[in-house]
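Honest question from a wet-lab person: if I give you the sequences of every part of a complex, can you actually get the arrangement of the whole thing, not just the pieces? Trying it with mine:
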Amino acid sequence: MKIGKYLCYLVWVLLLGSCQIEAQKSKYLRSVGDIAYDSTSDKKDFYLCNERNVKQYHNNHKGLEYKGEKIALIELFDKQFVPVPNSKDSGLIRIRFIVNCKGETDRFRVTAMDENYKEKEFDTKITQQLLLICKGLTDWIPKQYEDKALDYYQYLIFKIQNGKIIEIMP
Amino acid sequence: MKYLFLLMIPFYAVGQPNCNVYLYDKDTAQYNACKSVEKVYYYQYTRQYQEQFDRALEICPYFSYAYRAKSTAYLKSGDFLTWKYLIDKAVEYDTLSNIGYRGWCKYQFFRDYKGTISDIEYVEKRYKTIDVGYSAGGEYHLLVAKAICYSALNNKQKAIEILENLLANKNYDPGLFDYYQLGVTYFQIKDYENAQKCFDKQSAKYELAENKYYKAKIAKLNGDTLLFQREKNEAIRLYQDKKNMVDPYTEHFNKVYLTTIINE
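Yes, you can. This is the full assembly:
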């Protein structure tokens, strides 16, 4: 009986080990755009229903789901974002994050490009404001599958022209 | 002749690759790479999917389809930097099969209006017909996408000219939202008579909450309170019945939100 138990344990360890070796060999994450927990920036108590199966916002074919639709987000950014005077910064800023099964958010990551799809660093007065407003968004709608709430990746892309938001995507 | 030419394009639309096209061209490297991904069952976001196409690129480094396939998950996750690198590779190795698609994606995901116009015009110059292709989901002809971009750049007359020419072409079957987009463009330049005509045509083709909303606005401008209220109520009902413009990834151009209709 005990030997059986040890054998099961050994198989489990070997399987886990081989999965990890496979993952280590690969230059890819489990899924494109996955965001791993980072103790320096992420909340320790951010709860995920299923860490290994975080969906994408478009998986249920409903796109972005926010209470009051996207116009509610647009109005919020219109009210809260203060354009940076005399800024020449233009391009796109993407903030990607997770909306968990309770509709809470965390693991925010920022990427930006100029108008020619080249990586760019924007004035932190712009990125920090956007990040702060994003973190304050509380009306994300948890996505569901067969009556079960899911965690999902969401992003917002801000089209910036001379320090002002001119469009928000998706 | 036109159809024979289309058969020669291996992956004009996204789907299972037709590897035999490469054999026809005696390109065994692309044929072998193509065969290696003929049956890919992984979701495009997964590591396995990306790796399978990497192996295809090891067989044939200029296999454009692999670059395009790899780019999709980056596009959908909003990773413009990686997407652009990959899709540019696809365009580099097979320009005509990919540039129209790249143009559409630039518009749909990143609202890069100038970039979209430039890509679509490249195809137009090469083909010299209206057969420049469709959006990834098939709901917009690429010339309609081009018109939308001109409209977004506030060149309304140019947008109208493109749409009117396309809709007047006897070989063109109007798309699901063409008359609506043209109607809104007329509305924006205050040509309400032509706008109304387009919205009526849209109603006949495929009724939308957004279309009814604009009809309500025209009725209001004409001082017809009864008609305004009727059209507005109908717009709300259609919206609640989910007969509005929905894109699972981003948003349609000239989309109208429910609160906007209610507050009209």
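Two things worth pointing out. The CA atoms of residues 147 and 159 of chain B lie 4 Å apart. Residues 1-14 of chain B have pLDDT under 50 and may be disordered.
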